[in-house]
């Protein structure tokens, strides 16, 4: 589940096809899902599945760790 700037939440299904990418500031390299922590800004490219849910195709980490 992902919180949006307007306070709404969206749920995305992560599959084995989902790619996790460090953003431009981090070199646009593929990273592990565990490298993304709660509260970090991300961009999600998604497709709509047949059941109407959203499948994350690519998740890009847009900010460094926030602590």
Explained architecture:
The protein has 67 residues and is mainly beta. It has one domain. The protein is built from no helices and 5 strands. The chain is globular, with a radius of gyration of 12 Å. Helices cover 0% and strands 45% of the residues. The strands form 2 sheets. A 3-stranded mixed beta sheet has the order 3-5-4, with no helix packed on it. Strands 1-2 form a two-stranded antiparallel ribbon. A hairpin with a 5-residue loop joins β1 and β2 (9-10).
Topology overview:
Elements: E1 2-3, E2 9-10, E3 12-22, E4 42-48, E5 54-61
Parallel strand pairs: 3-5
Antiparallel strand pairs: 1-2, 4-5
Total separate domains: 1
Approximately what portion of the residues adopt beta-strand conformation?
A: 35-45%
Query: What structural class should be given to the helix and strand makeup?
Result: mainly beta
Strand order of the largest sheet: 3-5-4
The main β sheet shows up as:
3 strands, mixed
Helix content: under 10%
* Number of beta strands: 5
- The global form is globular
SSE ordering: EEEEE
